[in-house]
Each structure stands twice: as C-alpha cells, then as structure tokens.
Design brief:
- By secondary structure, the protein is of the alpha/beta class.
- It has one domain (about 10-180): Rossmann fold.
- About 45% of the residues lie in helices and about 20% in strands.
- It contains nine helices and six strands.
- It has a six-stranded parallel β-sheet, with helices on both faces.
- Strand 5 (about 130-140), helix 7 and strand 6 form a beta-alpha-beta unit.
- The chain starts with 10 loop residues before the first strand and ends in a 10-residue tail after the last helix.
- Pfam families: Isochorismatase.
- This is Isochorismatase family protein.
- InterPro entries: Hydrolase_YcaC-like, Isochorismatase-like_dom, Isochorismatase-like_sf.
Length: about 190
Amino acid sequence: MNEPLFSRDTSVLAVIDVQSVFLDKLPEAERTPLVGRICWLVRAADALGVPIIAMAEDIAANGPPVPPITAALPEGTLVHDKRVFGLAGQPDILADLTSRGRGDVVLAGLETDVCVAQSALGLIGAGFRVAALSDATGSPGACHAAGLERMRGGGVHISTVKGIYYEWVRDLETLARVKAQIGTTLPAGLTL
C-alpha cells in the first residue's frame, strides 16, 4: 500500500477484550483512563464512519466488555465471543472484519502482549495492514512494552489515540464536524 497514513475510508477499529478480568490486572490508576481513551476513540471512529468490531474473550467465563465500552459502542454492535487469542484465528470474527471491505485494522484493548499482539500478527498474516495504539492497549508491568516491541518487530504500526485520530480526520472541516458530534471533553491522559 502506497499511502503511509491510515485513512478513515480504509480502516476498521477492533476493540479487543476490554473486560474486568483483564483490566483488574493493571494498576488501579491506569484502568479508568485507559477505558476512557478507548471509549473516546470508539465515539470518534463512529463519528468518522470507521466501522467498529468488538469482541470479548470467553464471555460466559470472563463476562462482557465493561459497561463504559458497551455504552460507547454504536447501537446494534455485535460483541463477538472470542474463543482464541488472535482474532484472525476465529472464522466468524475474521469474516465480520473482511466483510467491511477495508484493508487497515486499528487495534485497541487488552492484553497488549497476548490477544492484541496475536491479533495484530495474525491480521498481518491474513493480508491486512495493522496499527496498535500504545495508549489504548494495556498489559501489566513490562508486558505492555514487550507486546508493543513484538508487534513493531512483526510489521505492526505503533501509534497513539491522538495520532490515529488525526490520521483519520485529516482536515479542519472534518475536525470541526467531529468535535460538534462528540464534544470537546477528553478523557484523562488524552491531549489533542
């Protein structure tokens, strides 16, 4: 692909396993800001027409996504019951993603070194271009940095919520439209 920037017209946002069982592994001070950034990104993606797919690992055992995530998802969004670590390894999730007809996937969620990394690398293997967001993913301790490093080494673009947002927005007219739709209040830890 010749275009180095990710476009709102070619991207899908994948929200992976933002469930209490995984959030609770993170330091308490990191949990709410992380969820806030992911929720904000979901609202921004929706306002920009970027399709969103959501999933949660073993919903029966681990529960659904946390309530703020569920509330942020566009009405009618299916939350896939993910039974594998890398989403590309589950046919129904991969089919949902492929049905969107877009070649770029932006990843947010948990855990950076396991489900996010395996999803990213599996998607690259399936022919997608992938970005993972360093401030919209999480794992306890050194595992977060290790996951980002593993993905970077595998050809995943590492960006931030702010970075991908402005790649999707691209111009001041669109910026004004999105701000009017989602407001100007930002979650903790996000500066635009």
